[in-house]
Amino acid sequence: MSSGREHWGTKIGVILAVAGSAVGLGNFLRFPTQAALGGGGAFMIPYFVSFLFLGIPLMWVEWTLGRKGGEYGHGTAPAILYRLTGNKFIKYVASIGIIIPLLILFYYAFIESWSLAYAFFSLSGALADAGSKNELAEFLQGYQGIMSNNYFDSVGTAYIFFIITIVVNFYFIYKGVSSGIEKLSKIAMPVLVIIATLLVVRILTLGTPDPAKPVQSVANALNFVWTPDFSVLSESRVWLSAAGQIFFTLSLGMGVIMTYASYLKKDDDIALSGLTASATNEFCEVVLGGSLIIPAAFIFFGQTETLRIAHTGAFNIGFVTMPNIFAGIPGGFFFAFLWFMLLFIAGITSSVSMIQPMVAFLEDEFGFSRKKTVLIMFLLTFLACQPVIFFMKYGFLDELDFWGGTVFLTVFATLEVIVFGWIYGVDKGWKDLNEGAEIRVPRVFKFIIKYISPLFLFILLGAWTYQMFIPTIMMKGVPEENRPYIWGARIFILAIIGIMLYMIKITDKNKHKGEKI
Amino acid sequence: MNTSAIILMAVVWIMIFSLMIFCFYKVFSKRD
């Protein structure tokens, strides 16, 4: 049917948009800390095994389902999976393909706004004033509104940067897929690579900044990052962490790639485009991301302290350790500015991709105009971010991340791959994948998609349920005073699920396209 | 740097660069 939907303007445009969605804060913050804690160079073995058996197959599955859905005028999981399977139950379960990006967006947009603020603080000198690690930690907590201190007496400044960030995001969404997201990606992605390369060159040419500590050199930092500790390969936690990283880094199981691919034309290539976007993400993650924060921390603080910092979490490294490092090098304010701009650019190309599925849902299934959709989404995002901002210190953000960023993600990816391989049928799916393909997809991936990837996902689901899901659901280790807020976050998530299920139900009666979704 | 670190870093970087070059060569060798 003719849907009158938008299309991407160029092939490189859609590749960069998907790569932009995949390359996010995690490439520069999460990956290096996971690798440092997971056996250094040895981490690359489970990481690339996961890339091959989970990342690449799932990526092709999402591109294929998305382009197929676009043919029928649908851009989101409930409609696409229902159209391909005819199963109502799947349609309702697939609503998580819209809920996931929304839940992640509600906290990601706030974190993204920190990067913009910190880029500004780097130039204004505010960061330089808070020079020591402890002062920078206080600066961050004051900024986040966790405490009132000499630097910030409320969350007001963070709020202003948050508003600026969502306005910028929605500007690109309002401009549309080709004139907004594609144009943003075509400029932002090359700029991101240039900035990251400049920072890598700066860090790898630091030599031995403190002659009194000759061990803390660039060569030893790279040794620390890359020397393989093969003994960790027998530990399941390293395999799980590598598989999880591949999952998150490629934006898989979120529904965003499916939506982006729905704006392709029927005979557009997806095999090569998907692989190119994934390769770009791996370059940004392993080559660039792997050469930034951990080597820099090693050079300035040594091995023991770097491992301790890595244990304190990726945000601590990004927003406390890195400005502290830059304060110690000539022209550090400029490099700090570049670092936070890098995070902001990585963030915005990802956050626009999280907005688009819901936009597509409202436009495709309800026939809403762009203006109306953007207005609704802007208000929804603005309101839903309020508890994240004001209750952050009580663990509200972490709870959304747990459900949206881990549980639903894994469930949705499993659903997609089962639908593709077993319900829609791997033979039909394989034929679709190869339609218009500009590379020959090795046939072994047909087997991998049908058997290996679902098995991989079931193992991940099982292991995470045992290790992480049950303790988190039972609020193990959560302070008593935080529990009402955690329950609040869960009610908030249930409300969003309820609204989404209701919306899907009323689309059953939606006749604007003369068909049920 | 020790030998195993150099070898591993070189292998991983070369693998990623090769994949990128192959993909972008294919993308740009065909007109949109």
List keywords for this structure.
heterodimer; A: 517 residues; mainly alpha; 23 helices; 75% helix; B: 32 residues; 1 helix; rod-shaped
How would you describe this structure to a colleague?
The complex is a heterodimer of chains A (517) and B (32). Helices cover 75% and strands 0% of the residues of chain A. The radius of gyration of chain A is 22 Å and the shape is globular. The longest helix of chain A is centred in the C-terminal third of the chain and has 35 residues, at 332-366. With 517 residues, chain A is mainly α. Chain B is rod-shaped and about 40 Å long. Chain B is mostly helical and 32 residues long. The chains are: A mainly alpha (517), B mainly alpha (32).
DSSP, total strands of chain A = 0
Gross geometry of chain A: globular
Indicate the proportion of strand residues of chain A. Answer: under 5%
Question: What is the helix tally of chain A?
Answer: 23
Computed over alpha carbons, the radius of gyration of chain A is 22 Å
β-strand percent of chain B reads under 5%
Strands of chain B, count:
0
| N→C terminal distance of chain B | 44 Å
Helix content of chain B: over 70%
Identify low-pLDDT runs of chain B: none
For the largest interface, the chains and their residue counts are: A-B, 28 and 21 residues
Q: Please provide the ordered H/E string of secondary-structure elements of chain B.
A: H
Determine the fraction of residues in helical runs of chain A and give it as a percent range: over 70%
Report how far the terminal alpha carbons of chain A are from each other. 13 Å
| Uncertain ranges of chain A | none
Q: What coarse outline of chain B follows from CA principal-axis ratios?
A: rod-shaped
Report the sheet with the most strands of chain B, covering strand number, pairing sense and barrel closure.
none
